[in-house]
Structure prediction request, 184 residues.
Amino acid sequence: MHRRTFWPGTTFWSICFLCQGICQIGLSQGTTTEVPDPRTYLAFFREVTALKSDSDGVLVNGVVTTIKRVTVQEAIGLTDPETQILNTRAEDCEAKIRSIDGAVRALTFEARLRSIQSEGAPEPLGQWLRGLENQRDEIVREQIQQLKSELGASRFEILDAYVRSKKSETFFPPVGPVPMVRRK
Prediction:
């Protein structure tokens, strides 16, 4: 009679792989509760603000072209009222952060000067800089929360998915034919 040997290690690894597979299925089907990255949203808000003020064509080698930037409505699929909410949040965020950015620039410059003189950045300046950056991140988080409450959860998820998908790219790239520039 032939007996089959069952190894206890096989049972352990089978259970581990089964649990890992179930967890992955649950994660891929559920929505993420991950907190949006404030640095990514700050870049997004800044680009939204710049896009609103950039009504002229795109410059290529200093020349205005017929190339146009994608609008927020075209890129994300927001309605006019939703776009207005986004523009308001972006402008409000930019206004609140402007003074902090000035302080960060001045503190960074001071830290660089002191590090040149003493061959190392002084710790208090580093702590102040981190404090200002945390303050800036908190302002962005507040704007994100306001945006989420004003748009509603389902519409915010669409916006958030767009922002996360463009994390390392330009949020609103130019579209249209690229003119040929001839060098003489």
